[in-house]
Design a protein that fits this description.
- By secondary structure, this protein is an alpha+beta fold.
- The chain is 54% helix and 19% strand.
- Strands 2-1-3 form a three-stranded antiparallel sheet.
- Strand 1 and strand 2 form a beta hairpin.
- The longest helix has 27 residues.
- The chain is elongated.
- It starts with a helix and ends with a helix.
Length: 103
Amino acid sequence: MKTLLKLGPLKVFLIAFLIITIPLFVFPINLFSGIIVFGKLGIEREVPLSLSYFVGLGYEPNDLKSLGITDFYLTGKGKMIAFIFLIGIPSLLAYSAYLFQKK
């Protein structure tokens, strides 16, 4: 861990960001609170969603049509959790690298 902290805050942030972001956007890990909208009536259901769905990975468009899903999006809670994972945790690690260098 000390060798990682010696790299500097910006490099630590970028490395941590990539280590966290790549799995969340590649694998269908349903961690984030979201809403799925069904059909033309607009029936909504709260379900856990994966960030990979937003880049087109983890589902087939034909599957969405056959299930009658017209839209899906993250709720405020889901957006906050995504922000904490993608920005907050790498920022804390970068801050600890900054403090380590200052020491």
